[in-house]
Amino acid sequence: MTPPIVHTVYHPGTEGPLPTVIAIHGHGANGFDLLGLSPYLAQGRVLTLCPEASYVLQPGLLSFTWFDTIPPQQRSEHEFERVAKSLVDFVDWAVPAYGGDPERVVVLGFSQGGSLAYRLGLGEPRRYRGVAALSTWMPEEAEAHADRDALDDLRLFVQHGSDDPLVSVDRARESRERLVALGVTPIYHEYAMAHEIRPESLSDLNAWLEEVLDLPAPEGID
Question: What is the mean pLDDT of residues 127-140?
Fold first, then answer.
């Protein structure tokens, strides 16, 4: 079967079924952008699947965005839902294709990719162990399509830079308030950083991933 989305993969080289992270990149990035985190996510013990957006921002460069850029370049709810559906189709195909464990999947998103991670996780909370929302915001579509009866099953991890010049930290704080109103209390961290991932934030992310994916401490680490 032809893969539904161009993507990159990090495989830990161990036998499956494997705990899995779906890592969704942000505006202006590509399928390799978050792949570099793979050896560090839970010490490289998770299958990491990185779908790539289809709309080119700069011809000749690996710079993509998830939503249609045809003028007037305004994302509609229909466009958002179309892209979310394409990512669900990707998860349906990629997790079993690469030996992932469908019972241990986390969806992670950075910036624009985080808005889609919110949509997937809140829309089907019983399908995912958790959502990691990095330097992002919760879009209205995620709240509108949330399965409110099943949100108790979903764990959310939110981190943001207090000096983020692209996505204001106020948007993360407002997203947290809306999540609490939905009945979900996320683990929330702010760091003295910009629109990025730094060692401290990565360390906290790793600890959370190991917990939600039921990964024991690596050998040799007490």
Answer: 97
Q: Where are the domains of the chain?
A: 7-212
Query: pLDDT per residue over 46-72, tens digit each?
Result: 999 999 999 998 888 889 999 987 776
CA distances to 175, 203, 216, 217 from 220, in Å? 39, 18, 11, 8
Q: With 70 as the cut, is the pLDDT of residue 222 above it?
A: no
User: In the CATH hierarchy, which top-level class contains the domain 7-212?
Assistant: alpha beta
